[in-house]
Amino acid sequence: MADILRERERQVYRKGAQPFQLDCEKQSVAGSVSQRACVFCGSRVVLYPIADALHIVHGPIGCASYTWDIRGALSSGPELHRLSFSTDLRELDVIQGGEKKLYAALCELIDAHQPKAAFVYATCIVGIIGDDVEAVCKRVSREKGIPVLPVHSEGFKGTKKDGYRAACEALFQLVGTAPTDGISPISINILGDFNLAGEIWMIREYFRRIGVEVVACITGDGRVDDIRRGHGAALNVVQCSGSMTYLAKSLQDKWGTPFIRVSYFGIEDMAQSLYDIARFFKDPYLMQRTQDLVRQEIEAIMPTVVEYRRKLQGKKAAIYVGGAFKAFSLVRALRLLGMQTVMVGSQTGNREDYEQLRELCDEGTIIVDDSNPLELASFLQEKEVDVFIGGVKERPIAYKLGVGFCDHNHERKEALAGFAGMVNFAREVYGTVMSPVWKLTPRKRERALPKEQPE
Amino acid sequence: MLLRHTSSEVVERSALTINPAKTCQPIGAMYAALGVHNCLPHSHGSQGCCAYHRSALTRHYREPVMAGTSSFTEGTSVFGGQANLLQAIETMFDVYGPEVIAVHTTCLSETIGDDMVQIIGKAMSEGKVPEGKHVIHANTPSYVGSHVTGFANMTKALVHYFAEPSAEEKKQINILPGWVEPSDMREIKCLAHRMGVKVVMFPDTSDVLDAPQTGTHQFYPKGGATVEQIRSAGASISTLGLGLSASTRAADALEEKCEVSREMLELPIGLQATDRFIEAVRTIAGVKVPDIITDERGRLLDMIADMHQYVYGKRVALFGDPDQLVSLAEFLVCLDMQPVYIVTGTPSTRFEKRIRSVLDSSVPSAKVRKGAQADTYLLHQWIKQEPVDLLIGNTYGKYIARDENIPFVRHGFPILDRVGHSYFPTVGYRGAMRLLENILGVLMDRQDREAPEESFELVM
Predict the structure, then answer these.
(1) Phi, psi of A57 (to 5 degrees)
(2) B330 in Cβ contact with B268 (< 8 Å)
(3) Would you tell me which residues 58-87 of chain B have a C-beta closer than 8 angstroms to some C-beta of chain A?
(4) At what angle do helices A199-210 and A284-312 cross, to 10 degrees?
(5) Kind of pairing, strands A366-369 and A12-14?
(6) Phi, psi of B189 (to 5 degrees)
(7) Closest Cα of chain A to B304: distance in Å?
(8) Architecture of domain A187-293
(9) Which residue of B has its CA nearest to A374?
(10) How many cross-chain Cβ pairs, A to B, lie less than 8 Å apart?
(11) If you measure CA to CA, which chain B residue comes closest to A90?
(12) Inter-chain contact B17–A86, Cβ cutoff 8 Å?
């Protein structure tokens, strides 16, 4: 067991006899090799999937380079969001201010691409040199006749969560700016799905089948004009609550639209989400269609899932994700596959999240907030984990230890949402847990040796 | 079509970079610091910078990348980053036990004016730096230069902090490899070793970012130049700096500080550049070139002769970093190919001159652009105006390659969608053979794929 930073002792909890105590929503200790990112990162991942908008990063080139098309948020139409636009601030701009450059860049871009809206991301340095991004945006908006929205995402102004909030604030300005004629009373906005690997298309198809109109997808496969009339939807359906609850609450306050939290991940949560939505509309036919859909879908996938469960029974999983809400669904989905979650953590969970995780998990499970590679590696070894579920920085750590890995973040290659997603998830977990490569790795080989000796 | 947004008409842009052919300084500094044994790179700025750099390097190398961050907050940006860095230094020595902490700055800490020398001095006087351990720094403002500049600055910092002048000369030469892959550094060392020359190489990321699977997570992998080695660089016979953009600063600093004479060479990519490298090592160390190397050269030459009919006259577009581009262009010319478009986002003053000296006799009309607005968007526009037969660049070239149906060889940083670069070098004669193999592979695959059935050939 590696040393845990003294200051971090209270950010690690082992479910057992001791009373539940877990510090979270703390600043990372300076010098910690944290897996966390910044405000800009939060804003950028949330808004980026809006495919017909301009996304221009106002700052030195790095922030634009590192976020150029790294998230597989698919679009069924325009792909303007996959280009990288930056004001590429230089030393002279830092001294003289970058407003002129931003103005010129916006005008050049809008003339060239005729986007439906523009998002301007302020980076660290913009907050320090004091550019009035808001004023530039207003001016360009007036001159070009499209919404030009500042995103206050200076990296140092908090955590990724604050970036989500800045993104929500920009989105909030868009909603309510277009007419809502012709929207069905049975209608929703999908909040907090980013269409990784085409997941929102699967979810939309479910809604089409049960007869619920989707007004706006926020933001996966998102379109500016849809978001502008989002206030016409009867209900906001919020996944990834960490990023989108703020927007849902704002919309409730201003437009009176209620919202519910959902998760599309795993059979139980997916079915529950559809039922919750059907129940909201109090329409027996809608409920009937939903039940039919759930039955059909489960019938279709269950034999495969059962087959995987037979093979994966008793295997151990560790989870480290950005937002804690996703972890709930993962724990349940893994359980459905007969697997036990022995470690679970997130970069940005809050007290409520961790409390809920504790209730959900088995005795002995390690629950951790804002972890780092040393800790993660030691937990993986201590618990003899078979699969680690995380993001880009976690993958090579798992592989070096001879542990299987499944990306449940930006780099997922298979749709993991919905009923079909459960099968994909099972296949992916099975593929990595059972890979013959681990039998060749030193750690597993050593572990296997003593067992061959007679008692 | 993904890049339907690219028009063939080039409108001069005054303020905008689209699809950049560069990134910012700090990641270069982080990469260089990883080439020091037992070293923990540290990003003095917001948490996101460090996360982005680690992610980018992890995607490129498929290896764990460790680095600390000062985790700036709103308060830090007002009161300065001293308190954060002091705490970070203490925390890192305490928990991660590095021998060296290599701090690089960011746009944020540079703009608020943190004084690294003063803060590190304070950390030492307050006893936060344990005996025998080191904190070094490089200033790497993101709004100056590019990632290559950051690499150059951290390499220079290694000289500044560690190299020691010595009255006694050691029978060894320094090689500053420039920003190349771990595989390239390994190959350069191997060439010198075969010539019987003792080499001090820094940075050296071999055995750090190409670490074997051992079933354990090595926080500090076994590779990297040791402090002791870098210290002894001041006593070496001479310094060979490879890559003018990446290595000149460190080579100059070493000459100035320790009076070690230096010779600057372009990266040994391609036949002629490798010839010059071998010749330089031979001359400086006073050794003979062994047959094993001469034969390697002969095999490369043989391969070029065998296959020259397939590459002759092909038009090539290149983008990436100045040092790579100059040598690649020279190699392409040697293959009788036509590097017609060359773009780097790095604002290097000597780049144009260097590249023209390689191209002028054979491709005088080549379009070359560097610095602001020299991005892959512009390159794509040029290609739309007059197509090319081959594209060479980092992974981001795949958009253009797909859109325009151009055979594509990945080279440079970052490569996010293929493996090989960390294991197989492109420097030296063997590296050149691999490059040629890759070039031929994509050209001939295309021919096989697209040739009409009657001219689809078995023997090529």
Answers:
(1) -95, 115
(2) no
(3) 58-59, 62-74, 76-77, 84-85, 87
(4) 140
(5) antiparallel
(6) -65, -40
(7) 36
(8) 3-Layer(aba) Sandwich (3.40)
(9) B219
(10) 257
(11) B143
(12) yes
Nearest CA in chain A to B26: A62
**The two structure tokens encoding residue A397:** 């750590």
Closest CA to A75 of A53, A51, A56: A51
pLDDT at position B3, please? 63
The verdict on domain A301-446 having CATH code 3.40.50.1980 is: yes
CB A87 within 8 A of CB A120: no
Task: State pLDDT tens for residues B27-50.
Answer: 999 999 999 999 999 999 999 999
Main-chain phi, psi angles of A194, to 5 degrees? -110, 15
Identity at A386, one-letter amino acid code: D
The alpha helices in B163-224, defined as continuous H runs, are 182-194
Selecting from A5, A34, A59 the residue whose C-beta is nearest the C-beta of B69 gives A34
Write down the ipTM of this complex: 0.94
How far is the C-alpha of A334 from the C-alpha of A343, rounded, in Å? 12
Q: Which CATH architecture has domain A39-174?
A: 3-Layer(aba) Sandwich (3.40)
Q: Which residue has the tokens 């004009």?
A: A225
Residue A326 confidence class, pLDDT cut points 50, 70, 90: confident
CB A346 within 8 A of CB A310: no
Query: Exposed, middle or buried: residue A191 (CB in 10 Å: 0-12, 13-18, 19+)?
Result: buried
More confident residue, A314 or A323: A314
CB contact under 8 A, A3 and B62: no
Enumerate residues 236 to 295 of chain B having a beta carbon within 8 A of any beta carbon in chain A: none
Half-sphere exposure of A48 (CA within 13 A, CB side): 28
Asked if the Cβ–Cβ distance from A91 to B13 is below 8 Å, we say: no
Beta bridge mates, B173: B199, B238
Tell which residue, B24, B21, B19, has the closest CA to residue B48: B24
Question: Which tokens is B373 given?
Answer: 């607005």
| Omega before A284 within 30 of 0, i.e. cis | no
CATH placement of domain B173-211+219-291: 3.40.50.1980
Question: Distances from the Cα of B130 to the Cαs of A4, A55, B134, B422, in angstroms?
Answer: 20, 46, 8, 34
DSSP A104-125: HHHHHHHHHH--SEEEEEE-HH
Query: What is the spatial distance between Cα A361 and Cα A332, in angstroms, rounded to a whole number?
Result: 9
Q: For residue B89, what is the nearest residue in chain A, using CA coordinates?
A: A31
Q: CA A440, A446, A449, A451: dihedral to nearest 10 degrees?
A: -110
Query: Are the Cβ atoms of B18 and A159 closer than 8 angstroms?
Result: no
**Nearest CB to B46 within list A85, A129, A156:** A156
Find chain A residues with C-beta within 8 A of B60's C-beta. Answer: none
Distance CA B202, CA B37 (A): 10
Q: What is the pTM of this model?
A: 0.95
Q: Which of residues 372-391 of B touch A (CB under 8 A)?
A: 372, 377
CA distance A306 to chain B (A): 31
Name the closest residue on chain A to residue B4, using Cα atoms: A79
**Smallest Cα distance from A90 to chain B, Å:** 4
pLDDT per residue as tens digits for the range A49-67:
999 999 999 999 999 999 9
Give mean pLDDT, residues A291-299. 98
Q: Does B344 touch chain A (CB under 8 A)?
A: no
| Residue B45: φ, ψ to 5° | 180, -155
Q: Does the beta-carbon distance from A79 to B4 stay under 8 Å? A: yes
CATH classification code of B307-454: 3.40.50.1980
In chain A, which residues fall in CATH 3.40.50.1980? 39-174, 187-293, 301-446
Segments of chain B assigned to CATH 3.40.50.1980: 25-145, 173-211+219-291, 307-454
| Nearest-by-CA chain A residue for B147 | A62
Give the CA radius of gyration of chain B: 23
CATH fold of B25-145 = Rossmann fold (3.40.50)
Provide the residue type at B316 as one letter: V
